[in-house]
Amino acid sequence: MAACALRRGLLSTVSKYNKKHTHRILSVVDSSSGFEVYRPRLQCRACGLPSGVQQRRFMSSRPEGKILETVGVFEAVKQHGKYETGQLFLHSVFGYRGIVLFPWHARLYDRDITPPMSDSKPEPPGAHGSKEVKGKTHTYYQVLIDTRDCPHISQRSQTEAVTFLANHDDSRALYAIPGLDYVSHEDILPYNSTEQAPIQHELFERFLMYNPAKTPPFTARDTLKAWQEKNHPWLELSDVHRETTENIRVTVIPFYMGMREAQNSHVYWWRYCIRLENMGNEVVQLRERHWRIFSLSGTLETVRGRGVVGREPVLSKEQPAFQYSSHVSLQAPSGHMWGTFRIERTDGSHFDVRIPPFSLESNKDDKAPPAGYTF
């Protein structure tokens, strides 16, 4: 679907065209139902023709009853610097439309890169390997996802992945903000639009206002600034961990969610987001997970199971990525996690993909987790 074209069509085409060519982003609209089904393609304004074989494929395989409608105009991808609040974009892997709320500056620990001895992250006790990993600053963005695109990415990426501890007596109660995501800088394909409300999301007008005098023409409302400040400890992205095994890259981002009291003890909660990406040409399927969870209290837990979040995703060249979030709780303020995913090839053989070890650290301040979905 959209992810295939974006990864191998849109990104390469945008980088190859010079500044004289402006690209319109087109979407497919179901003329019978009025519901928009997103199928991005590129068109060159200078020549008026589709740019590339991948785009012609969309024209020829388009279902009957679909028409193309302009969504916006691509902008140059930023090789340096960061995107501002209000920047419209396409996700280069999952293909959805979104808008940037604000940036986060994280430390990326990439185990595929051999580091010097300084500025490195030591291995947790019992983790695989003995390699220390150097961290480098990397920009991520808090974004809103267009709700019209959520049904078309739900099998590849959760659209309710950003969760919080609810302010209830039940220490396990969680609530989610639908259509909120974290996006890496290299996954942003920026575009602009003449629409005053180009993104459909219930928080769009609460968080952003249209200001044609600005570039991009959407600025943060005080509501967004207040929400960011209030929820900063529970939204903040600090460490990102990445490792590749046999062309399957695993990226992990842990988030501290807060502490709750249960049965006269303290329970600390974390959310972790995992993205698996097939960097090769071979079709594979995730079959099993194997986790090792170490707590500062001295306990070591082993968790095995089929698939992840009830699924056994297939990773192919057409749909190379799968992203999900899950949760873990400890009766200690810190710990570590690491493990493997069992991957199956089309011939029935298996191999294990390493999950990079990552720390579970609680915030030093004792602020209470957010009390609810308030503004």
Structure commentary:
Mean pLDDT is 80; it is low at 1-21, 29-63 and 371-375. Helix content is 12%, strand content 46%. With 375 residues, it is mainly beta. The chain contains five helices and 22 strands. The strands form four sheets. Strands 1, 2, 3, 4, 5, 6, 7, 10, 11, 14, 15, 16 and 20 form a 13-stranded mixed β-sheet that branches. It has helices spanning 2-16, 53-61, 150-153, 204-207, 222-235; strands at 23-30, 36-44, 66-74, 88-91, 97-110, 120-121, 133-145, 163-165, 174-176, 180-184, 188-192, 208-210, 218-220, 239-245, 248-262, 265-278, 284-295, 300-306, 314-315, 321-330, 334-345, 350-361.
Biggest pleated-sheet summary: 13 strands, mixed
The protein's oligomeric status is: single chain
Extended strand count: 22
Which value, in Å, is the CA radius of gyration? Answer: 22 Å
Structural class given helices, strands, pairing?
Answer: mainly beta
Q: Outline, from the CA principal axes? A: globular
Order of helices and strands: HEEHEEEEEHEEEEHEEHEEEEEEEEE
Low-confidence stretches: 1-21, 29-63, 371-375
Number of helices: 5
- Overall pLDDT level: 80
> Could you estimate the helical fraction of the residues in percent?
10-25%
Q: Strand percentage, roughly?
A: over 45%
What is the terminal-to-terminal distance? 36 Å
Domain ApaG: 242-367
Subcellular location: Mitochondrion matrix; Nucleus
GO molecular function, one term: DNA binding
Keywords: DNA damage, DNA repair, Mitochondrion, Nucleus, Phosphoprotein, Transit peptide
